[in-house]
Structure formats: structure tokens, C-alpha cells
Design goal:
By secondary structure, the protein is an alpha/beta fold. It is built from five helices and 13 strands. The chain binds zinc ion (ZN).
């Protein structure tokens, strides 16, 4: 269990992983507080695809950019797949790329944002590059291996050595609440060992296992161990189906 730091900036609050609190590496897991969206999206909703007013979402995204001191925010219209986008230096404006679930870059000044309501955001930092990655990991992403594939993509694009990578797993659905009634059909047998009690799965441990298998050092992997369904300061799809998405963000300054 990692003790996260809490930082307020104007009306926003974000959680910081100690392993990523480094010069030139803005990051944070933003709570739902400090934005302008109204119920049921109150208030820092960053998703354009949940029925919220797009102008309010754009304002919320601007609030996040301001909090992290950057002008460019790149996100994906996430589809629970395994496609990875390398964000190049030519990307000078905000972008929401369709059909991707992970983003990687070595370009300074670009923030990578993952949008969540129970799924994980896994943030990756290669200090040798430097380079960064951000992956949206729901259970379908875990099954598809989006995390191992993101590590491979960073190695191909930036020469990242997995043993150098620092990884953090954001607040997300915990083993207390991740019930899968149809796991025999939905989840591969390799995941079945990750049941705490029957039918409840520890996807935090599954991500840690996938990262270690990809070559990361156990001491470089931090889990927030905070369940979004149990924590009202985050959006949770399992708690409120009609709700917003919170932001996990990392960038190179
Ligand atoms: Zn829970």
C-alpha cells in the first residue's frame, strides 16, 4: 500500500504518487471536485461521451491543464481495446484520439490523460528517456494485455528498458467490489487465481503481475489501493451508472 500525497490547487484536489513526485514530471489523479459540471456530473468531469455539456467539459480540461502548467492535453476516446498512440512533437493542440486506450510520448509539454470511473489508469515513467506512458486498463484491457503491450511500445519507440520503468496504478475498482458473476466466460483461467473471495477479483494484483512479467522491478510498481466504488470523491460506474469520468494525468515539463 502506497501512501499518496494530496495537493490542492485553486478548487481542484489531486493525489500524487511519491515515486512520481520529481522535477519536470507533472502528474496527478484528480478527484471529482473543483470543476464546473452540474449533477450528475458534479463537478470535474473530463469525458465528452457521458452526456455532459461539452463546454463544461472543455472548461474542466482547461482547469486541469492550468493546475499542471501545460498548454496541450492529449486523451483518447477509449474503447477497451489495446491500441497505443505515440504522441509526436508535431502535436501542438489538444487532441482526443479515437479508438486508443494508451498513450506514449517523449515530447515535453504534452499532458497524457486517462478518463476513468472504476477502470485503472496506469502511469509509466522512464527516467532514462525520459519518456512517459498512460494506459486505460479495464478488465477487457487486462485480458487484452494493454499493459505489456504499452511497455513493449515504449521500448520500441524510445528504447525504454523495462527495469528502469516506474509504474503507478491509480484509484480504481478494488477487490472489495470487483465482482464478476460470469468470470468463467469473461476472464482467462490465468486470472482465476486472483480471486480474494469467490467471484471477486483483484485487478490491482493482476496489473502488478503483468508489469512484473514485462520486466518491471517490484519496487518500481506502486498501487494506490483505493477503490473508486468505495471512495465518493471519485466517479464510479458501478456506484452510479450515469456519472462522469475523473482524470489521471502525466506529462514531461
Ligand atoms: Zn470497493
Amino acid at each position: 500500500m502506497t501512501t499518496l500525497q494530496r495537493l490542492s490547487f485553486q478548487a481542484t484536489e489531486r493525489l500524487l504518487f511519491p515515486s512520481l513526485v520529481l522535477p519536470g514530471l507533472p502528474h496527478g489523479i484528480f478527484t471529482r471536485h473543483g470543476g464546473v459540471s452540474r449533477a450528475p456530473f458534479t463537478s470535474l468531469n473530463v469525458s465528452l461521451h457521458v452526456g455532459d455539456n461539452p463546454e463544461k467539459v472543455r472548461t474542466n480540461r482547461a482547469i486541469i491543464k492550468n493546475a499542471l502548467g501545460s498548454n496541450t492535453l492529449v486523451s483518447c476516446h477509449q474503447v477497451h481495446g489495446d491500441a497505443i498512440l505515440q504522441v509526436k512533437a508535431s502535436q501542438a493542440a489538444d487532441l482526443e484520439a479515437d479508438g486508443y486506450d494508451a498513450l506514449i510520448t517523449d515530447t515535453p509539454g504534452i499532458l497524457l490523460m486517462i478518463q476513468q470511473a472504476d477502470c485503472q489508469a496506469v502511469l509509466l515513467y522512464d527516467p532514462a528517456g525520459p519518456a512517459i506512458g498512460a494506459a486505460h486498463v479495464g478488465w477487457r484491457g487486462s485480458v487484452a494485455g494493454i499493459l505489456p503491450k504499452t511497455v513493449v511500445a515504449m521500448r520500441a519507440a524510445f528504447g525504454t528498458r523495462p527495469q528502469d520503468l516506474i509504474a503507478v496504478v491509480s484509484p480504481s475498482l478494488g477487490p472489495c467490489c470487483a465482482e464478476f458473476r460470469h468470470f468463467e466466460e469473461e476472464l482467462p483461467s490465468a486470472f482465476h487465481a486472483f480471486q480474494g473471495r469467490p467471484g471477486y477479483f483483484d485487478f490491482w494484483a493482476i496489473s502488478r503481475d503483468q508489469l512484473q512479467t514485462s520486466g518491471l522491478s517490484p519496487r518500481n510498481i506502486a498501487l494506490a489501493s483505493l477503490c473508486t466504488r468505495c471512495s465518493p470523491e471519485f466517479y464510479s460506474y458501478r456506484r452510479n451508472h450515469h456519472t462522469g469520468r475523473f482524470a489521471s494525468v502525466i506529462g514531461l515539463a
